[in-house]
Amino acid sequence: MSQRNGTTIPQLLNSTSNNLFLTFQSDISVSSAGFHLEYTGLDSCPEPLPPSNGQRVGDRYTVGDMVSFQCDQGFSLQGNAYITCMPGPVRRWNYPVPLCIAQCGGSMTDFSSVILSPGFPGNYQSSLDCTWRVQLPIGFGIHLQFLNFSTEPVHDYLEVRSGTLETGTVIDRFSGPMVPSSLFSTTHETTLFFHSDYSQNKPGFHIVYQAYELQRCPDPRPFQNGIVIGQDYSVGMTVSFECLPGYTLLGEPSLTCLHGVSRNWNHPIPPLCGGNITSMNGTIYSPGHPAEYPHFQDCMWTVRVPPGYGIYINFSLFETEKEFDFLEIFDGDCVFLFYMWVSIKVCIQTYNHTLLLFKVEFGGIVGQIY
């Protein structure tokens, strides 16, 4: 720490620990008056108080010791998170104890947290525009619970949006002294926007949120006479459909699971019934073939080939419920050939397009057409 000799009185020295060792050595020659020193044990640094709405970590306050600070949820630390006890005639910390304050806005990715109005539990300031953005993985929403709420009615308000501030949908807007009921946001991104005008200031709000997993969309299987590509039916995911040979897909070939209170696909699950056919040859089946067709079907096929060609139709099987379930075939000039309760029939169309209508009423229990 120090070595001294001669006739100059050393400056004041401070130890940085609670142990001090002194050694004195003299040789065989000149002797002098020696030395006279006094020592005093110095106190540790004063105990730092934890900040309001925060905690102190560490309980040793001697020279060189370090303590840290952290804030409660919803508060942000302002100042230095770590302070060290410094040596010197007067023990002191190298930085003041930090503060924990509620900020105006912020971004959060935690599955649970707290959102506070600026300055909470004190009054918020005037002329504020604060935005909090909660962003979670796709497939999660948040449950918002209001513990405290008090703003100037009408003029100061909190707005909750499903999505971003610029493009999101407003879930609700709150203002006044009433504590709102809890609410759910059904998207993975939720925005809270707070506005205060130039006049009255109130205590504001204390909100806690908790993430929850959104339900999945309905399973689109079984998809008769076709296959479903994709097995993840959670929010934002897409599945697609492909038909087996001889079947035509009606509806959208791909569906995406939508956000919302109730999970649903962005389009109906496509039925395998009817369609537009342009190939020179092919096969048309009744819905559900080779099983029985379902009730309440209204199917339409349009077969169109290049001009100059006719269409040859060969029925290899025909079986429907009499009177109620029937297949109608219209020629290109709307002169139709009508078949009902027929086993097998052959016909030749003289136009390049043909319309087939198949209707099923309630009560039919058998039926195979192809």
Protein model, in words:
- This protein is mostly beta strands and 370 residues long.
- It folds into three domains: 106-213, Jelly Rolls, CATH 2.60.120; 216-272, Complement Module, domain 1 (Ribbon); 275-369, Sandwich (Jelly Rolls).
- 0% of the residues lie in helices and 36% in strands.
- It has no helices and 27 strands.
- The chain has strands spanning 54-57, 66-71, 76-78, 82-86, 92-93, 99-101, 106-108, 112-116, 128-135, 140-150, 157-162, 169-174, 183-185, 189-196, 204-213, 226-229, 238-243, 254-256, 275-277, 298-304, 311-314, 318-319, 326-330, 336-339, 346-349, 353-359, 368-369.
- The chain has a five-stranded mixed β-sheet with strand order 7-9-14-11-12, with no helix packed on it. A five-stranded mixed β-sheet has the order 19-20-26-23-24, with no helix packed on it. It has a four-stranded antiparallel β-sheet with strand order 1-2-4-5, with no helix packed on it.
- The termini are far apart.
- Residues 334-350 and 362-370 have low confidence and may be disordered.
CATH architecture of the largest domain: Sandwich
CATH top level of the largest domain is Mainly Beta
User: Could you say which overall geometry the principal axes of the C-alpha atoms support?
Assistant: elongated
Instruction: Give me the CATH fold name of the largest domain.
Output: Jelly Rolls
* Secondary-structure element pattern, one letter each: EEEEEEEEEEEEEEEEEEEEEEEEEEE
In whole angstroms, the N-to-C terminal distance is: 102 Å
What multimeric state do the chains show?
Answer: single chain
Instruction: Tell me the number of structural domains.
Output: 3
In DSSP terms (H or I, runs of 4 or more residues), the helix count works out at 0
Give the radius of gyration: 41 Å
Mean pLDDT: 82
Largest sheet: 5 strands, mixed
Strand content: 35-45%
**Number of DSSP strand runs:** 27
Query: How much helicity do the residues have?
Result: under 10%
Strand line-up across the major sheet:
7-9-14-11-12
> What is the structural class?
mainly beta
The CATH homologous superfamily of the largest domain is called Spermadhesin, CUB domain
Organism: Nothobranchius furzeri
Protein name: CUB and Sushi multiple domains 3
Domain CUB: 104-212, 273-347
Keywords: Disulfide bond, Repeat, Sushi
